[in-house]
Specification:
This protein is of the alpha/beta class. The protein has 10 helices and 14 strands.
């Protein structure tokens, strides 16, 4: 079993390596690959230093699985070349998510959508992943009619550039290459991705499309607002759900407490609810502030937080890889 991580020196690539090591994924050899600027650098994996190679070199070695975190253009260029030599590509960019022939996978929900001929598999957007882990079990029981989503996304979702802008602003250093069009320290920015002609951003459009595709629920009405907040790591979301069927809060709690990948923190009397500092370095999706929306019939409000670099990216991809290995794809 040979695994390559493409984009191994980047923020998510490094987290992929960390999760592969932590979860003791079975492999005989690791190939770290990156852009030409990083070729020759070394990474430490399982107490061994391994040299970073070019993506072309990694393709020539015909790995079994390639975890991609190198951006959309690199994925569009190289993923088909890996697939052509028999590699299963798990891509973290948005390049393949809308492709009808490419499964968009969150392991707790739709591993059944992966088939042996799917040599390119898409990893969803970080916010989408954490939300669907929480809401899919509720949809199976009560049927979601409508979702209203507000996100509170950390700067790590913008990569090292976003982290650097926040840190520089907080310490008074000049920002020479900002990730955002406005200061992020002591501020919130209602802007994620690029605006389209309707006034929505690409991050908002991703949330809507990907949720329907992953849950195989094309008729759910969805509206969303994406907001960047001055938090280093961990995305949070306020999600309002309108169900087709009646429910009780006790039923909701029971479902969430017995669904994979979810940790419920909901004790407002003791000021306990999910926050990014709880989610840091954890793979679970944390859910709290569970309460009925009395303004509509069958309405529910929940608050969701997760480590966007782990479950929102690296861990989700590694879970897919583990599935491929265990099922001998």
């Amino acid at each position: 079993m040979v695994i390559t991580v493409v984009g191994a020196t980047g923020l998510v690539g490094q987290m992929m390596l960390k999760v592969l090591e932590e979860q003791n994924i079975v492999m005989d050899r690791l190939i770290p690959a990156a852009s030409k600027n990083s070729v020759g650098k070394t990474i430490l994996f399982r107490e061994k230093e391994i040299a970073v190679c070019s993506v072309e070199d990694a393709i020539d070695q015909k790995p079994d699985i390639a975890l991609f975190s190198a951006g959309g253009s690199a994925s569009l260029k190289y993923a088909p070349l890996f697939a052509a030599v028999g590699t299963y590509v798990i891509d973290n960019s948005s390049a393949w998510r809308r492709n009808i022939d490419v499964p968009l996978i969150v392991p707790e929900i739709n591993l059944h959508a992966i088939h042996k001929h799917n040599h390119i598999i898409a990893n969803p957007n970080c916010s989408t992943i954490q939300m669907v882990v929480a809401i899919a079990p509720l949809h199976r029981r009560f049927g979601i009619k409508r979702l209203v989503i507000s996100t509170y996304q950390s700067v790590s979702g913008s990569g090292q550039k976003g982290i650097s802008q926040l840190e520089y602003e907080m310490t008074g250093l000049p920002v020479t290459a900002p990730a955002y069009p406005h200061p992020i320290a002591m501020n919130v920015i209602p802007h994620g991705g690029d605006f389209d002609e309707t006034g929505y951003t690409s991050e908002e459009v991703k949330l809507e499309f990907e949720t329907r595709k992953i849950m195989d629920a094309p008729d759910i009405a969805i509206t969303s607002t994406v907001v960047r907040v001055p938090v280093k790591g961990g995305h949070s979301m306020a999600v309002n759900l309108e169900f087709e069927k009646p429910f009780t809060i006790e039923e909701v709690n029971d479902i969430l407490n017995h669904s994979p990948g979810i940790s419920v923190i909901d004790d407002p009397a003791n000021n306990l609810y999910p926050m990014p500092i709880f989610a840091e370095n954890h793979d679970e999706v944390f859910v709290g502030r569970i309460r009925r929306d009395f303004s509509i019939e069958n309405g529910l409000n929940i608050w969701i937080t997760a480590d966007n670099l782990r479950k929102g990216a690296a861990t989700n991809a590694v879970q897919i890889a583990d599935f491929l290995i265990k099922n001998k794809f």
